[in-house]
Amino acid sequence: MNFLAVIPARYGSTRFPGKPLASVAGVPMIQRVYQRVVASGACDKVVVATDDERIARAVQDFGGEVVMTSDDCPNGTVRCHEAVEVLEARGETFGAVLNIQGDEPFVHPDQIEQLADLLRKPDAAVVTLAKSMPDDPEVHSPHRVKVVRNLKGRALMFSRSPLPHGEGPWLQHVGLYGFTRTALEALVQLSPTPLEQRERLEQLRWLDHGWRIDVGTTTHLTPAVDTPEDLQAIEALIHAGDLRI
């Protein structure tokens, strides 16, 4: 299976404009993500998909590859799909696509390998990761998405609320996805659903339409950046030696 890793990156984030170019310990966030994906060795090609020339220039400056996409992509999955279509128009082909969020500057190479391994399993079509979340105030944050799995490790529900009810631990969703090429093509054709719109979580659309999502678990500390405050907290962890850059 030929693997393509796409890192969707847009400049106009509502909560954190210019987030992909924000400095994380002196290095642009998008550069950290790109270099960690490349370091995994799990993908045959790695590209950043963006509609912004500032992001494109930054990626080109550190030697990365960029695919320009339209400025009206409603979500990262559609932007990934557009990038795949651009590359396929150039004659390239891929059997699988990994969607690595541009706000995961500490994504671990092992996690990229794990996504690829999950996607190689028989009948796998859509895969993602989660990690154990202790009982602390962060569990109530709507920026920390929780996932509930069944006994076979498949997603039952994603929510911004602390699910399931009761004492923890919970599983926090890690914003990484893997798709077979045929699954990606089908997913971008699905219509939105009320549950997806209520939670503002695209993956609920896939569940609502009957798609199976296999959820692997990871132990790596990979804090995502949703707000400027998240970035400040990460810088504090780096300064304290609790997070390796």
Global mean pLDDT: 93
Number of strands: 11
Structural class of the helix and strand makeup?
alpha/beta
- Strands ordered across the widest β-sheet: 5-4-1-6-10-7-11
- Cα Rg: 17 Å
Annotated CATH homologous superfamily? Spore Coat Polysaccharide Biosynthesis Protein SpsA, Chain A
Q: Tally the helices: what do you get?
A: 8
Kindly identify the CATH topology.
Answer: Spore Coat Polysaccharide Biosynthesis Protein SpsA, Chain A
The CA-CA distance between the termini, in Å, is 31 Å
Uncertain runs: none
Portion of residues in beta strands equals 15-25%
Query: Would you state the CATH class?
Result: Alpha Beta
What does the overall shape look like? globular
**Main β sheet profile:** 7 strands, mixed
Known CATH architecture = Alpha-Beta Complex
Order of helices and strands: EEEHEHEHEHEEEEHHHEH
